[in-house]
Amino acid sequence: MSAKISLGIDPEELASCVACGLCLPHCPTFRVTGEEWASPRGRISAMRQVQDHGMAVDQAFLESMDTCVQCRGCEPACPSGVLFGSMMEATQAALVRNRRVDWRRWGFRILGHRRLLHFLSRVLAVAQRLRLVPSKRLGLPLIPLAQETLRASGEDVWLFTGCVMDAWQRSTHAAVKRVVEMAGAGVALPGAGAGCCGALALHAGLESQTRALAARTMKALGGSAPVLVDSAGCGAVLKEYGRLLGTPEAEAFSERVQDVHEWLAANADQLPSAGQRTPDVTVAIHDPCHLRHVQRVHQPVAEVLSRYATVVMLNDDGLCCGAGGAYAAMQPELAASIRVRKLEAIERSGAEVVASANPGCTIHLANAGVTVRHPLEIVDEALEYDR
User: Does pTM surpass 0.90?
Assistant: First the structure.
């Protein structure tokens, strides 16, 4: 692809970066490469060249954009309030509109079809056990052959179950549901219409697909009850439906969305104490980027988990682990290099277990040999003996 295109970025947003460089220490790809083109500042400069000066989109531009994890760690660090995430989304969307060939536009369509996704997941699970799939090289977890059935227990809150997580990690949803019920809430479950939230499609620039998935999700999660989310990436995009769709209905929906730890921290007095046989385990908390940098509600994880385990915080200032949704599959070498710093921080912590509230992070860290759990799986086990 080598052509002049319009990126469609708001000119005021594009001009907001003053190139101060305060974002650089918080950018995982810059930390790994040391190259300007792999930094937020360098990427914004390239966007300006394309949008304002008519520079053709060439391979160097594509590499600069595609190697971004979209962790948005640069945003909280920016004194000018640069909205880097929305600029990156606009750029990726412009590349798609200009007929960029990308398997993701087809692969991500599967995520919106729940039955097909579950069928293909079962096929993949069988292939893994027959050793027909190089799971480690592809960064895949061991997918379960069968999933437990989730049943609604009330209408106080919705539990968003999503797509890949529902097909590959439904046991996490089951643990989360039990903990929420222990806090006194009846849990409603969405139908097949609320499958994929659209996060991966949004990051890939698939605007129409993202909006279609958002409309389906809002319809399936109607009413006024809080929508609880146990995946940081999903929660981030659900909270941004108002911005993405620009309608009052979407704004109202986004106001209902809460990370499940956010809700539990506000209802902590309803949670029982830990069971007497709970093991004394030291747990290091890895903050998913979309919980820390986008939703900015990572503190409730420690508030809830510290009631049931000895918690330590990693001393890496929330640096990305390199998972980035589909990033680890698309950019495996960079993702592994980024992960090295996270592994070093985990080793320094001395913790036996790592807790992370995002499925991509848990898979990416587990592939490096880390014992990693969703925080509420740990809480669920601590409460098991009281049930």
Answer: yes
